[in-house]
Amino acid sequence: MRNVIVTGGSRGLGLGIASKLADDGFQVIAIARNPTEALTEQMRLVAEAGKGALDFQSADLSDIEAIPALVKSVRKKFGPLYGLVNNAGAGTGGLLVGMSDRAMEQLLRLNVHSPITMSKYVARSMMTTKGGRIVNISSIVASDGFNALSVYSATKAALNGFTRSLARELGPLEITVNAVAPGFIDTEMTSELGDGGVDKIVRRSALRRMAEVEDVGYAVSFLFSEGARNITGTVMTVDAGNTA
Description:
single chain, about 240 residues, alpha/beta, Rossmann fold, seven-stranded parallel β-sheet, about 45% helix
């Protein structure tokens, strides 16, 4: 089985992506600070299905200096790396004028510095086998913007630019680099918007609904498939037509 790292893979979007890739037959290593009950249950289900595999690796991805050793240990345990999904990130919001410098630094560290560093060391592993897939999880706010999310939007816009340029760097090695930009996803986080907020999102969406976690998983799954072998440097939007 080909080995794929999914950061932030213990819950939410990350767990959905990890589960889908495992169902596709990949050996998925979900990286997060701590495992969750949902991840443990999904690991059991994946093992029973017998298609792929789902494992857990504990790590604090905001500790940039520890990333080289992390990638090395994963490679030593599981073998050569074929794929990376940079999903881990912070969604801290707030008006720029009121946001603390520390909060800004944390957002930049986890949402930009960390995935760039992960990509660097995983790509080095891919170079030995020539071929692989990197998918960065961005957001529609990278291009559309959103009130009180200026710093977060900047981090996701940076990730999009990184995606396009890295695709050109790694293309000659048969490594594709793409991004998936979810819109408002039907999760516990969006439920905090209340019925009024959710209804507003649904009304402005072309499909009159919100996208779901599994939709993002399918998008990433496609980018890892043979059918996407000539797709690189792109940003795929998954938002039920919210930005159409």
